[in-house]
Write a structure and sequence with these properties.
By secondary structure, the protein is an alpha/beta fold. Helix content is about 35%, strand content about 25%.
Length: about 280
Amino acid sequence: MSIDETTRARNEVRVEPEIRTAPNSEQPVVFDVQGLGVWYGAARAVRDVSMQVRQHEITAFIGPSGCGKTTVLRCFNRMNDLVEIARVEGKVNYHGVDLYDPGVEPVEVRRRIGMVFQKPNPFPKSVYENIAFGPKIAGMKGDMDDLVENALTRAALWDEVKDRLDESAMGLSGGQQQRLCIARAIAVEPEVVLMDEPCSALDPIATTRIEDLMQEIKTEYTIVIVTHNMQQAARVSDRTAFFSLDVGIESEERTGVLIEFDSTETIFSNPSDERTENYITGRFG
């Protein structure tokens, strides 16, 4: 069954900042991940990842460097397909459709599941063309001016750039460029927005704007974010996945593994695994 057919059938240091309350578990499941593993050549990068990501929630991936957070995130829209030596095992079901089924088209997957990268990467084009490029390629119909304005408005950027639409996007500040990239991602009307460390290159003021934006747009999108900033995960996410590294005794091969996945409130206040507790309190990582 295609993604369209399934969608139609469905019809539809302990961190101190305030931690979001437990999310509504009745939200529909968007991603059902079962036994996910990723190999780069002969090296296993991550293993045995199982979780459910729910609609209109923000899910955060935290953990030490190299533990597979970004690798798992990239599995959600098949970005690892672009790495020649990468191999994915297990299941990543999107509304019940196996994203790695041979009949699923990766380009369509990436239209439905957009991505914002760690470093702002606007095209060397005007602000307007940055937003209009994707919809034009996708053959979207309608008034392009309205589409551009709508995307920039949803990304909380319209008022700042409405008089600069014909100017190069490279002239925007770092925070503005990142919000432009978010606007560019949502211009093609995805359901999911993946964010890989979207604030790591930004100052605290720009970071706050991005965090506020995530809260505003999650009513329209499902968001999955990779972050090294535990305070950020505590502030913005509904659920948190903690990843760590499993080091082989003989080979010393370092493999990422999902330690715990629960509501953000539980992860930061009452984790069930000692390794999570140690990471959250700063005893390792």
